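ingest -> validate -> predict -> emit
validate: passed (alphabet ok, no gaps, 139 aa)
predict: started
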Amino acid sequence: MIEFFQEDTSFVLPNEEKVIDWITEIVELYGKEVAEINFYFCSDDYLLAINRSELNHDYYTDVITFDNCIDNLIFGDIYISIDRVEENERNFSDGKYPEILRIIAHGVLHLLGYKDKMPNEKAIMTEKENLALGFFSKM
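emit:
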């Protein structure tokens, strides 16, 4: 089950059913199964509070993923700052895909075991995000 929630924002994800199918396809491509993924769309301040309380980090971020996966079953909570997504879209997006899709893919890839702390990990993550976005355009 994949669900979307709003916390401290009025953002509503367009094409929700298509996005659910896309996420499911991504997970299955990696030989895994969606058990439960919850997406929480929120403000910068909301996500900053989570970053401080749960991770002891004092900075804004676009996404935080809590991985509760068991073997090949994907369980997780993904918090996405809509404020950061909008800023990323203004500053970095190539306009081909909405930035929210890249951030959703990024969170899902974390649940699939991908990291992004080191430069080589970031490069792999970006490659996998681009691959996932390509799948979205074919749906």
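The chain has one domain: 2-137.
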